[in-house]
Amino acid sequence: FQKACMEKINRLPPTVKRSDWEDHVNGLLIDMVETGSIQEATEDVSTTGRFIDLLEDFTTHLQQALDKEEILMGKPWHDDEGNVWFRLKDLTAHLKRNNFTELSRPKIIQRIRQRNGKDKPVNIKGRSQRVWIMPRFKAQEEPFKLPDTLEENEAPF
Predict the structure, then answer these.
(1) What is the chain's percent helix, strand, coil content, to nearest 5?
(2) Are residues 124 and 69 in the same domain?
(3) Domain contains 157
(4) Overall domain count for the chain
(5) Per-residue pLDDT tens digits of the chain, which is 157 residues long
(6) Which end of the chain is more exposed for a tag (fewer CB within 10 A), N or C?
(7) Do residues 108 and 31 share a domain?
(8) DSSP single-letter state for residue 155
């Protein structure tokens, strides 16, 4: 706090006893709650929410494997039982490309397990691979509405 004051107002405020400072901050927080100044953040703003969005992008919206062997190419594969299979290193590469570094590898695994994901060693093209299998995200069933076609000489805008 003192450093921030020095940077903003070029003054060093006196040091306050820790208990007095905590009482002051708690009083301010109580006032903010009572007046409605504090609002809960939506789920997609949280670290877990952002991770789930990127996990859904990786398993649903990016290029998908046509068969299980393409998992070796870094693509997620959807089986006939409603599950998606992928390697953890491919997911973490996707997270890194999207500048998501908030979760460590164990925390990523924990979040996958919370979505009923399980790891399984499988043999693909003679290579032993550890893949993660989890229920796939609900796919969009309704098509997007396309704009009406333009007449032959009509400008698009």
Answers:
(1) 45, 15, 40
(2) yes
(3) no
(4) 2
(5) 788 888 888 888 888 899 998 999 999 888 888 887 777 777 777 899 999 999 999 999 888 899 999 999 999 999 999 999 999 999 999 999 999 999 999 999 999 999 999 999 999 999 899 999 999 998 777 887 877 666 666 666 6
(6) C
(7) no
(8) -
- Per DSSP, the three-state class of 119 is strand
pLDDT of residue 157: 63
The count of C-alpha atoms lying within 13 angstroms of the C-alpha of 84, restricted to the half-sphere facing its C-beta, is 26
By the 8 A CB rule, do 68 and 76 touch?
Answer: no
Cα atoms in the Cβ-side hemisphere of radius 13 Å centred on 55: 28
Which sign, positive or negative, has the C-alpha torsion 29, 31, 37, 40? positive
Q: Which pair of tokens denotes residue 74?
A: 């870094």
User: Which residue type is seen at 136?
Assistant: R
H helix or E strand, kind and range, residue 22: helix 18-35
Residue 29 and residue 27: Cα distance in Å, rounded? Answer: 5
Q: Is the pTM of this model over 0.85?
A: no
Contact at 8 Å (CB) between 13 and 5? yes
